[in-house]
Structure formats: C-alpha cells, structure tokens
Design a protein that fits this description.
heterodimer; A: about 5% strand; B: about 130 residues; Immunoglobulin-like; five-stranded antiparallel β-sheet; 9 strands; about 15% helix; signal (chain B); PEGA domain-containing protein (chain B); Secreted protein (chain A)
Chain lengths: ~300, ~130
Amino acid sequence: MIAHSIPGPARRPVPKLAAALLAVTLPITTLPLPALAGDVTPASAAGVRKTVQDRAKPMLSSDPGGAAELLAGEAKKTSDPVLYIDAGEAFLAEGVAERDKAALERAVEHASIGMDIAAFQQDPRCDPAWQHLDAGEFDREMTRGKKVVEDSEKAIADLDKPVEAPPPVEEPKKEKGTPRDGRGLIAGGALATVVGVGGLAMIGAGLALSSKAQKDVDALDPSAIDFDAQFADIDKKGKTANVVAYAGIGVAAVGLGVGIALLALGVKKRKAYRAEHGADETARVHVAPALGYGYGGLTLGGRF
Amino acid sequence: MSFRTPAVLSVLALALALGAAAPARAAAACSDASGVCLSDDKAKWEPDASLSAKQLKAKRKGPACKVAFEIDGGRGSVFVNGRYAGTAPDANLSLLPGKHDIQVRDGQKILAEGVLTVPKTGSLQVTVRHG
C-alpha cells in the first residue's frame, strides 16, 4: 500500500527532466553563435570593414594614395570584396589627381579582384562560412566595381593620348595702306567720267556758240560798210566754237570711255573684296540724271 | 658568293632583329580541351568535378607543393576550397598534397573549375586558358 501512496509523477521523472532541459536549452539556442576561426559572415565583415573605412575616409581627399594603400592592405588581409573596390576607387582618385598611370592600373586590378570575389561568393563552390556580402549588396558592389574599371581605363586612355600642342594663333595680317577693294579704280573712274561729262558740256557749248555764230552771220547785212570786219569776227567765233565742240567730242569720248571702264572694274573688284572680307561700306558711287529748266545732265556722287 | 647573298643576309638579319624585339609571351599557350594544362604528370585535373563537404574538411598531410597559376591571354582570380587564394599572374600558392576544389574566374566569367590533385613533392605550374 505504501508503495501505492507514492505520487505518480515521482515514479515517472522523464517528462519533468525533458521540460527542464527544454526550458534551459531554448534561451541558449537563441543566442548568436560566435563565428568559428576563419569564418566570415556579412555582419562580422561589415564590422571590420567599417573600422577600416573610418580610418581611410579622412585621408581620401588629402592623401588618396595613402588611403588607397591602407584600403589595399586591409583588403588583402581580409579578402573583403568591398574593401578591394574601395581601394580601387582610392587608386583611381590618386591616378586622376597625380596623372599616375601605375595608380590607375592598380585601380583596375583591385576593383577586378573585388568583383571576382563578389561573384565567387554567389557561386555554389564558395564556402558558406565565408561570406562578406548580404544578398542585396552583390549587385551594388558589382556596379561600383565596373564603374571603377571603366573610369580607370578611360583615364589611362586619356593619359596615353599624345599631348597635342595648341595650334599657333594666326594673327590677322594687317593690310598696309588702303585696302585693295577697288576704291582707287572707282575714284579714277569717277574722275574720268566727270571729265567725260565735261566733254559733253563742251560739245553742247560749242554747238550752241557755233549755232549762234551762224545765226549772226545770216543776220549780217552784206551792204553794210563793216560787213567784212563783222563777218571775220563772227567767223572767228564760229570756228572757235567748232573747235570747242570737236575738243568736247574727244574729251567726252575718252573721259566717258575710260571712266565707265574704270568704274566697272572698280565695282567688280569691290564685290570680290567684300565676298572675301565681308561687307564693309567703304566706297559708294552713284550716278543720277539731273534735269532742270534749261539744262540736263548727269550727277555723279561717290564716297571712297 | 652570288649577288643574292647580301639580300638574303639582310632579310635574315631583319627577321632576327624583329624576333628579338618581339615581346615574349607571358604564359605558355595551353591547347588542352579542358582549358587547363599542368606541368607535372603526377598532378591531375578533373574538370567540372567538385569535392564533397567531407572531402573538403579532410586533413591533408605532407610538405606543401608550390603551385603557380598562369592565365593564358588574360587575368583571373584563383579560389581554392571555397575561398580566395590569389590572382594570376601573381598567384603562387602553397598547397598541401591531395585533392583541392579549384575555380578560376575573371569577374562573372568562370575560366576553369574542377578538382586538382596536387603531387606530394616539387612544384606545379597550372596554365589556364582565358576565353
């Protein structure tokens, strides 16, 4: 009977022990597992990386070469692809600032290694206990690495280009004296034309005087006592008028011929000059009819 | 000596000068179908093979063998047993004798992957063809 007085659970200790073990075990398994030696997780890698980046950051602007060496050294120690690409960026900054081809080549090398490691860590052959990147960081780092490589290769190509000497600045040739735009021909032509117009005036005057002399002769009275003297006088005036008219014909022919020819040549030359040097109002000639009560003719004006 | 002799000698001298001036190739050409060539007959390359987790953890014994990787026509990083080991042409590794899981890649392009059996002694030259 005594034996039966013993409570049931005391005779069955296993469930109690299991419950106690479960109660003790649960909190332990929820604790973060410490990484084994040599193992790398994204969290542990990020902690190490931040320390290095914090040291390198202030140097990036003042001493990109020093920052690059620091990042490259730590990248080699940790095999962290992010630090390799960081080092690539720093070498790129140094290479561009110093025009240093070797630094640019190291930028390509480090960024390429960073991309190799990042890509390998997506591969099934990679040790699962060796991961520097979270899944979401892979694309970002690959894009960054490619940009470093592209920018570095472009900078190298720019350095390799031969430096072209700036073309010598050609000073515009100063034209001595007056420009050869035909203004001399136009001026000469205008003068000759004026002379020709003068010749026309001589013709007109000569003809008018000759005509008047003829009328005066016709009006003479042959029975007059001084007929011979007046006739001789008027004849002399008529002959002089004829000479003036004949001279006017020559002067007009030569003046107008030469003047019009020179004007034509001058205008042609001026057009060619303007086509070559641009329009410039340097010379202008105008001829206009001039009519009035008792006279008619041409007016010639010009600006040379 | 015929009149052609000076011309022939000139051509030979020119060819010799050009040959001397031409840069030597960085790596010996690898013509193996697998894209991987080994300098030692005792070493073995099994393309596309891989080691199990147990094989990877197995302890290897013996003196290390110097293994130099060269990339024929480019560059590449070498990964041994799941981790980064170095980048060719400066990838001179010390590997213990036995089987190793190897991958060589240039960015996202895998140049070679498989199992390399490293001999017990000496040194080994591994040439991987790029592209």
